[in-house]
Every structure is written in structure tokens, then in C-alpha cells.
Amino acid sequence: MATQQLRLPIASLREDPARQAFLLLRSLYTVAPILFGLDKFFNILTDWPQYLAPLAVDIVPVSAQTFMYGVGVVEVAAGLLVAWKPRLGSLVVALWLAGIIVNLLLVPGFYDVALRDFGLLAGALALNRLAGRYAGSAPS
Predict the structure, then answer these.
(1) pLDDT value at residue 12
(2) Any idea which UniProt keywords this protein has (predicted)?
(3) Which residues lie below 8 Å from residue 84, measured CB to CB, with a gap of 6+?
């Protein structure tokens, strides 16, 4: 009987595409913000300050790189929040992405990145809808 109970969640996962989608999105929206957030401190993937609208630096009187350090902290925190509380974390990520989109629309030449981030925002909202059903159930 114990063996059968251990297999049951895996079997139910195989038969539930929506749960698979939830786990995929939860993993993505946990790992990606953490990795991108950490990279704000190292600029390995790109030179992140180039994506910052000059207006942002005018409003917050710090250098663009210092601003990006703050962005990195928020992104890591958002990724961790998705891991622990996916329903709330997905909304935080969606709002964060909305802010990034507005910022990118103020930087000429990055409209394509803004459009991609809109797709990520839609994914975060899909995660939120799925988290309402799957966030508290095992295996997670």
C-alpha cells in the first residue's frame, strides 16, 4: 500500500497537463528572476545599465549601475517569493515586468525587448491563475 501511495502523485501529474504547466511556469519564474537579478551585480549576460531609461536615473539620484543593484535585489526576492508563495509571487513578477516594460518603452531601440517582456508578463499571469488551483498540493 505504501508503494502505491508514493506513485499516486507522479501518476496524477502525468495525467494533469495543467499541473505540469503550473510546475513549469513556477520553475521558470523562480529561476529566471533569481539568475537575472544576480547578473545585475556582475553584468555577464549584458551591460544592464544600458536598458535603464535616463528618466529613472533623474528620478532616483544614483548611478545607473547602483540602480541596477537595487533591481537585482528586487528580482532575486521576487524569484524566491514565487518559489514559496507562487500565487502572490506571480503577481509581484507581473507588476515588476509591467514596470520594466514602461521603462523599456522610454528607451529608444528596446521596443522588441519590451514586447518580449509583455509575453513574460502574460506567463506570470497564467502562473497566477494556475497557482490558485495547484499551489498548495503535492508534489511541488
Answers:
(1) 73
(2) Membrane, Transmembrane, Transmembrane helix
(3) none
Distance from C-alpha of 106 to C-alpha of 54, rounded to nearest angstrom: 8
pLDDT of residue 15: 85
Joined grid coordinates for residue 45:
549576460
Q: Return averaged pLDDT per consecutive 10 residues of the chain, 140 residues in all.
A: 53 84 97 98 97 93 96 98 98 98 96 98 98 73
Round the CA-based radius of gyration of the chain to a whole number and report it: 18
Domain chopping of the chain, boundaries: 19-134
Global confidence as pTM: 0.86
Answer whether 51's CB lies under 8 Å from 104's CB. yes
Contact 124, 101 (CB under 8 A): no
CA distances from 88 to 49, 63, 68 (A): 28, 31, 24
How far apart CA 127 and CA 24 sit, in angstroms, is: 9
Distance, CA of 40 to CA of 37 (rounded, Å): 5
- Look up residue 137 and give its three cell numbers: 498540493
Helix (H), strand (E), coil (C) string for 23-64: HHHHHHHHHHHHHHHHHCCCCCCCCHHHHCCHHHHHHCCCCH
